[in-house]
């Protein structure tokens, strides 16, 4: 089974998907005239608009929900894996996929907000919704929704939960060993699992409002604390910083592990971490209360910067500046190209990051990484639940026998149990398969939308014109020739009646 999953992962994450992610980001950057740079100041202004309603959440809450999905295990263990298999140059390609991917995030999140609907007193939307409403292809919407439920409901939570379980063990130790249906497990991990399930249940059974409130406070706190600690490590090794940046840039094109490895691992882990083009960020974007669809597109574009240019870079610089890494070759035998650590050090785990902090802070370092892993992974599981729930709600529109949302909640909690207890090595490959499935469908879909109707460009031009005019921001899709954006059509009609 492990060999099959590994080979399937290799097919999905072929060079075609890697260059599709980079190409889509470059394409949307050119088409939007690099909106991720031009409107950066506007992104910051929009973050602190506190407007929400009974049906929708604020822009900042939507940012926090999307960041809770973006900032996860990939920011710690994923960055370590990118360096371990792709060399320091992989960090450059993570930056590139973030910079270009911010424009992709703008496009997909604007579409999510543009074609959202109001169901049972709350806003819902995402890739499945806009494939159906914009393209008129419910089959493509259903295909994405099914892949999202499988990925976010089954494959991806296991990666995060496994890190949560390991974090608990790292902090408290194994405790007494108990036999379970998945083998022998420490009592401390089981106790941690019980707490996780209790808190997770309270949050996800409370709906998007409770998820947003949780993310609004926890996500900024955990990201800020992690970055501050990274800055301390960098400050204590500041004389090495120029050399680290020189290594990253030189290795990106004359790579230690081969340029293909640097690009492949950098893009792969970059997309896994920041989710640009994956379609997951569109769900939180649709849940926001905004005056104009482009506003949430800009907020979500900024979230890519936070995830990769801040949090992932913090991890990478800590690892490289302290020389706490190995680089594994691609030749048979897997000999190391660069070796600073014992050969037994696991590549692809949080070990590099733990050792980087331990070299600076002693025993506190691994403890802090374990704590960060716990919070990063836990908030990501919450975000995955919301994505799975939204796509089940979409599918329920087309099936006579609806899937009760309680089934999704129980499925996520079951996968948390599986991921926390199970230590199988292929669990990361399952996560990569989930990311890749959604990315293929979503990126191709949003490119088709662009060539058919270009609604994201129409929204951007309309928003920029209103900003320049200095008047109140409104949105009327009919005036722009955008069809089937029924939520916004009805809002514009009510405004005209008043």
UniProtKB/TrEMBL annotation:
It is found in: Cell inner membrane; Cell membrane. InterPro entries: Na/Ala_symport. Keywords: Cell inner membrane, Cell membrane, Membrane, Symport, Transmembrane, Transmembrane helix, Transport. One of its GO terms (molecular function) is amino acid:sodium symporter activity. One of its GO terms (cellular component) is plasma membrane. This is Alanine or glycine:cation symporter, AGCS family. It is a multi-pass membrane protein. Belongs to the alanine or glycine:cation symporter (AGCS) (TC 2.A.25) family. PROSITE patterns: NA_ALANINE_SYMP. It comes from Janthinobacterium psychrotolerans. The chain crosses the membrane at residues 12-35, 56-86, 136-156, 190-208, 217-238, 244-267, 367-387, 407-427, 433-452. The keyword Transport applies. The lineage of its organism: Bacteria, Pseudomonadati, Pseudomonadota, Betaproteobacteria, Burkholderiales.
């Amino acid at each position: 089974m492990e060999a099959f999953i590994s080979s399937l992962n290799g097919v999905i994450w072929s060079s075609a998907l890697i260059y599709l992610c980079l190409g889509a980001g470059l394409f949307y950057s050119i088409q939007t005239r690099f909106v991720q740079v031009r409107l950066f100041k506007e992104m910051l202004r929009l973050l602190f608009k506190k407007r929400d309603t009974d049906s929708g959440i604020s822009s900042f809450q939507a940012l926090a929900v999307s960041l809770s999905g973006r900032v996860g295990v990939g920011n710690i263990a994923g960055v370590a894996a990118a360096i371990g298999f792709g060399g320091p140059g992989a960090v450059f390609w993570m930056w590139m996929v973030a910079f270009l991917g911010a424009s992709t995030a703008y496009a997909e999140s604007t579409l999510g907000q543009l074609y959202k609907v109001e169901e049972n007193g709350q806003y819902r939307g995402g890739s499945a919704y806009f494939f159906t409403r914009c393209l008129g292809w419910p089959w493509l919407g259903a295909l994405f929704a099914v892949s999202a439920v499988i990925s976010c409901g089954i494959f991806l939570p296991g990666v995060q939960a496994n890190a949560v379980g390991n974090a608990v063990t790292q902090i408290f130790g194994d405790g007494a060993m108990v036999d379970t249906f998945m083998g022998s497990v420490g009592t401390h991990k089981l106790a941690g699992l019980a707490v996780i399930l209790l808190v997770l249940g309270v949050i996800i059974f409370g709906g998007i409002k409770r998820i947003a409130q949780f993310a609004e406070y926890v996500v900024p706190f955990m990201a800020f604390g992690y970055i501050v600690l990274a800055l301390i490590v960098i400050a204590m090794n500041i004389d090495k910083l120029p050399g680290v940046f020189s290594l990253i840039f030189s290795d990106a094109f004359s790579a230690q592990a081969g340029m293909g490895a640097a690009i492949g691992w950098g893009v792969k882990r970059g997309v896994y971490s920041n989710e640009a083009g994956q379609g997951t960020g569109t769900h939180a974007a649709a849940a926001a209360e905004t005056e104009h669809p482009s506003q949430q597109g800009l907020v979500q574009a900024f979230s890519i910067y936070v995830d990769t240019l801040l949090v992932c870079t913090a991890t990478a610089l800590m690892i490289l500046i302290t020389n706490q890494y190995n680089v594994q070759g691609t030749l048979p035998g897997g000999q190391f190209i660069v070796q600073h650590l014992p050969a037994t050090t696991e590549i692809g785990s949080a070990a590099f990051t733990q050792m980087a902090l331990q070299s600076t802070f002693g025993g506190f370092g691994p403890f802090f990484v374990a704590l960060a892993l716990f919070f990063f992974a836990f908030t990501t599981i919450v975000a995955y639940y919301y994505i799975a729930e939204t796509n089940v709600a979409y599918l329920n529109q087309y099936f006579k026998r609806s899937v009760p949302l309680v089934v999704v909640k129980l499925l996520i909690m079951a996968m948390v149990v599986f991921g926390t207890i199970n230590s199988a090595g292929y669990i990361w490959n399952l996560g990569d398969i989930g990311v890749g499935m959604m990315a293929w469908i979503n990126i191709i879909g949003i490119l088709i939308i662009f060539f058919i109707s270009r609604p994201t460009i129409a929204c951007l031009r309309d928003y920029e014109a209103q900003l320049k005019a200095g008047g109140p921001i409104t949105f009327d899709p009919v005036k722009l020739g955008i069809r089937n954006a029924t939520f916004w059509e009805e809002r514009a009609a009510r405004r005209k009646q008043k």
